[in-house]
Specification:
47% of the residues lie in helices and 17% in strands. By secondary structure, it is an alpha+beta fold. It has a domain at 25-80: Arc Repressor Mutant, subunit A (Orthogonal Bundle). Strands 1-2 form a two-stranded antiparallel ribbon. It starts with 5 loop residues before the first helix and ends with a strand.
Length: 83
């Protein structure tokens, strides 16, 4: 078994971290919202807000996709649909 030097270990960590980062969705954009963001803004229940947002997606008013949220977790973000 081969033992890695500290420099090799750091290089491996950097390489693997870059591979993981490349597979993650993009960060949330300024023109996107999440259900918790809208719930906090309106004072409504996050579950009800999410149901409403999903209805807007079905109606074609909004689109949704995965993003990296402000807390570095993968979350669903919504934005206005392009005409």
């Amino acid at each position: 078994m081969t033992t890695l030097t500290q420099a090799q270990a750091f290089n491996l960590l950097d390489e693997l971290a870059a591979e993981i980062e490349a597979q993650l969705p993009p960060p949330i954009a300024d023109d996107e919202v999440t259900a918790p963001m809208l719930a906090a803004k309106t004072g409504n229940d996050a579950g009800r807000v999410k149901e409403w947002l999903e209805l807007q997606v079905k109606l074609g008013v909004l689109t949704k996709h995965d993003v990296i949220g402000v807390n570095r977790r993968v979350v669903v973000a919504y934005r206005k649909a392009q005409p």
